[in-house]
Amino acid sequence: MIQNKHIIRLSFIGLFLNIIANIVMYRYFMIEEVILKQTAQNNTYLVQTYQNEVWDKSQEAVDQFNSEEESIFTNKNVIDYIQDSIRFFQNINSVVNIYDKNGNKIITNSNNQEEYMSVKVNASFYSSALHKLDSLLLTKYMPKDPINDAYKGKTSHSLVARSFSSHHELTKSFIKSYIPLISATDGKFQIEGIVEINTDITNEWDDITYLEKRAIIIFVIIFLVFFSIVMYNTNYAQNIINKQFETNRALKEAKTRAETESSAKTEFLANVSHELRTPLNAIIGFSEIIISETYGKIENKQYTDYINDINNSGKHLLSVINDILDFSKAAADKLKVENVELDLNKLASSSMRFVKPRADAAEIELIEELPKNHIVIVADPKRLKQALLNLLSNAVKFTQSGGNVTLSISKNTSRKLVHIAVKDNGIGMDDSQIPKALSSFGQVDNRLSRKYEGTGLGLPLTKKLVELMGGKLNIESQKNRGTKVTITFKYDENIQF
């Protein structure tokens, strides 16, 4: 992210420099298109008009100039020509000089030919930098010998600006236009004279420069504001990302520790469960031998009650250990299922028969709601029966005497689903207790007077078993009104048992 932060900032600065460069280049576009070319066109048009209205009508006077006689200025034609020329250029803000074909200045409309010259001006850093750019980018508007080009019949427009190193003493900028006066005699063209027009472009030049300067200042201010925002946002984002990175690393370390601890706990439970099953099998086996009086009768009836308690407790403890072992395997993804085609009706009936003695002892009615046609699904018979027994045992456990537990099976033909539901009218749960009931070792009924002891693994283990077989488990419950647990599997009508 640090590299990205610098890339964003450098990109922003690059964009700023690009816009500044475009503003500067637009200035030169405006100088060239609006000032230089327009002024050149105006001067050319002015000379053409002068030639048509004054010069061509005063050929005799022009010839007098070209005769190099000293008395020409007393000639009436010459005087009229000079007056007409001065009158023509008198309303023009430019300084105009007219040269004959020998290069002699014969007419000017200004007495102060040095009005553009002054002492050197101390320029600011911005002005100095701008002058250097001017001297580099505008040199093409400074021909080497424009007046000679004009005597060769080529119109030349020369830029004389304060910016150029050879004219640092200038306080003004102007354009010198050298436009030849051409006559045609017997089909031959001849240069009769040159008109030099010095047009002051200082105000226009300064206006463009001023606008450019203001645009740059405004843009610099905008840039500084936005760059400050970018700096703040990138630093803020960097801090957030750094904190998030540290948090993610801490969470990853905590997750790794939790997974390690969970794996160690699961392995410990599996090992302990395995070690406990061996002595429990002996306890249960020997107690059954004693109960059956294989090696002789038990004389004292009190011993018979004790041995029955030992046997029942051993079986209960073995059941708990088996649940713990299965749950540990499921949590470690080591519990395997073998899915085969099975008759769901037969498996449900078998499960109901298994819990019937417990239900009868608790005076709870068991109700079967099975379809007439047998339903065949693909699942692990052993694990599905274990899941149903867990649900039925829980339903009997948490239902008061006189209540009922219903096992029903139904099909959703349109969606190709089969629903196995275990419903009771026992103590029930509210919505906040359902997640606890599905958590490992979670028990909703924490009273010391519970009818049956348990580890709280029945529902979590059932959920894992169902999911391993590709099914889904859903719980609906209301406090003091009962619970309904539904297992859903997909089925194929083409499979027949």
Describe the secondary structure blueprint for this structure:
Elements: H1 2-55, H2 59-67, H3 76-89, E1 95-100, E2 105-108, H4 125-137, H5 146-151, E3 156-160, E4 174-185, E5 188-200, H6 202-291, H7 301-331, E6 340-343, H8 344-361, E7 365-369, E8 376-379, H9 381-397, E9 404-412, E10 417-424, H10 434-438, H11 458-468, E11 472-478, E12 482-490
Parallel strand pairs: 7-9
Antiparallel strand pairs: 1-2, 1-5, 3-4, 4-5, 6-8, 9-10, 10-12, 11-12
Summarize the structure.
The chain has helices at 2-55, 59-67, 76-89, 125-137, 146-151, 202-291, 301-331, 344-361, 381-397, 434-438, 458-468; strands at 95-100, 105-108, 156-160, 174-185, 188-200, 340-343, 365-369, 376-379, 404-412, 417-424, 472-478, 482-490. With 497 residues, the protein is of the alpha+beta class.
Task: Please mark out the parts with pLDDT under 50 across 5 or more consecutive residues, or reply none.
Answer: 112-122, 446-452
Radius of gyration based on Cα positions: 55 Å
Total of DSSP H or I helical runs spanning 4+ residues: 11
β-strand amount: 15-25%
* Tally of structural domains: 3
Q: Within the largest sheet, what's the order of strands?
A: 2-1-5-4-3
Derived structural class: alpha+beta
Coarse morphology: rod-shaped
Order of helices and strands: HHHEEHHEEEHHEHEEHEEHHEE
Q: What is the number of E strands?
A: 12
Tell me, rounded to a whole number, the average pLDDT: 78
Major β-sheet annotation:
5 strands, antiparallel
Beginning-to-end CA distance, first to last residue: 62 Å
Multimeric organization: single chain
Helicity range of the residues? 40-55%
